[in-house]
Give the backbone structure.
Amino acid sequence: MRIAYLSTFYPFRGGIAQFNALLYNQFLKQGHQTKAFTFTTQYPSILFPGETQFVKENDSAEVIDSQRILSTTNPLSWYKSAKIIKKYNPDLMIMKFWMPYFAPSLGFVAGKLKNHTKSISILDNVIPHEKKFFDKSLTKYFLSKNHAFIAMSEKVKNDLLQLEPKAKVQVLPHPLYNHFGEIIDKTQARDILGIDKNKKTILFFGFIREYKGLDLLIEAFDKLDDSYQLLIAGEVYGNFEKYNQIISKNKNKNNIHKFVRYISDDEVNKFFCAADVCILPYKSATQSGITGISYHFELPMIATATGGLPEIIHHNKTGFIIEKINSNAIADAIQKYFKNCDSEKLKENIRTLKKELSWEVFAEKIIEFATNL
């Protein structure tokens, strides 16, 4: 196929850009003529709560030769982008959708191409985690401009069908990230991070946002004994002061290690290899790219039973699922995990799952789906 891929690519950084780079490269490997198109302006600086949207000099990132054409803030660029992509004359346009902010610009481009090109959007979320009154109308506009969708979980599919009951959709779980380096020795990883080599180690990883429940995890950590340590690794969206206040009152505060910054790709393996378990104490979720990283490093997970997380984290097989979303339930699950789990058996199950969740299979299924539209 001749594919136009319109989404976040280098020089932008973060999980979405990483996802797109891996899928783009897989399309190329499978012989599809693929061109990447990305933003001139992704978010206005005033709306971006993190440190920077862009790859920094020392970051390790997949450099994709993308054409920067679309400004989400400039409707004139929407016309221009549609014209440029139409001239490329693709059989298929792929987009990634994760929040309503992108609905007007991406929806406009897809609408202008709808009579010429099949448009399939990969949906991370349909209903956003932080809801606003205009979300539904913007999202419905965007959805109406597509021919079909890839949902990253059954939860996302169900949310989609609430807004577009006749939507053509296929559920494909998140593939496993495979570009964060090799598994290294646990003791070596802990030594590099400067943490205790003998404590039971819990990892909270990724962008820190309200819905991810870090506050509940810190409160739960206060209920554990001194044999545990907690790694918090990731850039905060907003302000970390709220969490610092909770930590300051925690009896185990000396066992909480903060790496509150953007974690570059070449550092990721140190955190996952240092941990005994990765925890996702989310208050709401659809799916999470963190599961793909954790499985890549064969690290079991503990997660709340929200959204699509129980679809990918199989209770007592590849991790533990927490039925209630509160600090007591989280603390109890952590203790039961370390007391009862057979970590080697969980890792064996993860290795089996890794074979099913490859980028090769993911790309093949998208093409098969598009061909049959």
